[in-house]
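>> received
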Amino acid sequence: MAGTFCVTVTHSRTDGDKATLAFVVANAALGSEKDTMVFLSSDGVWCAVKGEAEKIIEGPPFAPLKELMDKFLAGGGKILVCTPCMKKRNITEDQLVPGAKPAGGAALVEWLANGSPAVAY
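>> returned
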């Protein structure tokens, strides 16, 4: 059984529900003792921009996205943000929340190439 898990997120502003569910699952993976990485791409990169996660509150039974992201990072989760997707949206590294790191697609491929299961939202 793989010791890693990957959640890819392509929505934030366009569908807060998908972003929220992605971090619910990412936290569940951490709770299952999986080394977990969230890869944000396309519209999903907005999740990692300071002040954006606070705007997404889907309501019960889900915690607000900001709380889910904070819990994920505090639990040792990794957040990688697609560098070309950031550039397309004029997002700079200094705009990212602490703990989120820019990365290219090669980082995702490397993570998955080692046999990590993945889900996409």
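>> The first strand starts at residue 4 and ends at 9.
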